[in-house]
Design brief:
Length: 359
């Protein structure tokens, strides 16, 4: 029988009961101090029938924050809060990895310690608005990281990975997508550095490789995934030759035997038109399991698994509105509609109160 969304699979060292992955989703509902709270435990536990949950993007340090009410993964209190989440997901038979996040320039002094200036590969202000506790405000110019600061960033990834393991996660996903720090280094619209972290493709990939090497040393390569978004223009991103850049990124990541590569196959949030890109060519470069993401439905998800393009498919918005999405897909049940007004911040409404089938 052909493989489909409901076939089990191993992504490196992570065994999934099905191939429906819950995509990382920013929900802005953590407790004080970036500590996951009971509401977050309920939300994740409700979705544990997914083959794998990827946590919401989670700042690795105080300087990695870029939005209100994000959970962190760098203090003891945050680890204790996440432990309740992973215990609840595991009790329901699920698997969950933590997405390691540094936002780089997509931040604002009001979200950072001592009103710090956001950091980036280069001092280029993004077009668009920062989402702060005071509402939407203009981005400020970021400060270009000095080369001497980069080992400290790598150390923050290491500390966060150790914290995620202590918190009981089944692995970690390095967020190198969507215009945040590592992606800002990769793409030449945001990286104008003249040292060996900027310029040619090899140099722009250097920080991601250093982070990956360090995270793999702590977690084991078969527990580490990476997310990329080669042509996502969201967060004012562009690159002069994304196919060459990301084919190279995938080629060099092959050395690690990672658990998976997770690819956002286009542009998110209506953030502009994505440049043309051959994702099946990229996939042919990839020697690890491949998770496809972006606006897949059941039929297209089954099709990319049957064809071998993807080993699993990540669903975002459908998992917001349907905690039992796996059951709904497997029984061809109707889906709840997502309410976008409750995506970012708020209460249990639009978070843990979407109905299960038969409720
Ligand atoms: C968002 O908050 O809109 C967001 C966060 C992380 C992403 C993408 C989008 O990777």
């Amino acid at each position: 029988m052909a493989l489909d969304l409901f076939s089990p699979v191993k992504l490196g060292g992570i065994a999934l009961k099905n191939r429906m992955v819950m995509a990382p989703l920013t929900r802005n509902r953590a407790g004080a101090g970036g500590v996951p709270q009971a509401l977050n435990v309920t939300y994740y536990a409700q979705r544990a029938s997914a083959g794998l949950i990827i946590s919401e993007a989670t700042p690795i340090s105080a300087m990695a924050h870029g939005y209100p009410a994000l959970p962190g993964i760098y203090t003891d209190e945050q680890v204790a809060g996440w432990k309740k989440v992973t215990d609840a997901v595991h009790a329901e038979g699920g698997k969950i990895v933590l997405q390691l996040w540094h936002v780089g320039r997509i931040s604002h002094p009001s979200l950072l310690p001592n009103d710090a200036q956001p950091v980036a590969p280069s001092a280029i202000t993004p077009n668009g608005k920062a989402f702060t506790y005071q509402g939407l405000v203009d981005y400020v110019q970021p400060r270009a990281l000095d080369v001497s600061e980069l080992p400290g960033i790598v150390a923050d990834y290491v500390h966060a990975t150790k914290s995620a393991i202590s918190a009981g996660f089944d692995g970690v996903e390095i967020h190198a997508a969507n215009g945040y720090l590592l992606d800002q280094f990769l793409r030449d619209g945001t990286n104008k550095r003249e040292d060996h972290y900027g310029g040619n493709i090899e140099n722009r990939t250097r920080l991601l490789l250093e982070v990956t090497k360090a995270v793999v040393t702590v977690a084991g390569a078969d527990k580490v995934g990476i997310r990329i978004s080669p042509v996502n223009p969201f967060n004012d991103m562009k690159d002069s030759n994304p196919q060459a850049l990301f084919n190279y990124v995938v080629d060099v990541l092959n050395q690690f035997n990672l658990a998976y590569l997770h690819v956002v196959e286009g542009g998110i949030h209506g953030g502009g038109i994505a440049d043309p890109f051959d994702f099946s060519a990229l996939r042919k470069h990839c020697q690890s399991p491949y998770i496809a993401n972006l606006a897949y439905d059941k039929a297209r998800g089954n099709a990319v698994i049957a064809s071998g393009h993807a080993d699993a498919v990540a669903y975002g918005v459908p998992f917001i509105a349907n905690p039992d999405l796996v059951k709904r897909f497997s029984t061809n049940a109707a889906l709840n509609e997502a309410d976008s007004s409750t995506f970012y911040g708020g209460t249990e409404h639009g978070y843990t109160d979407y109905p299960f089938l038969g409720a």
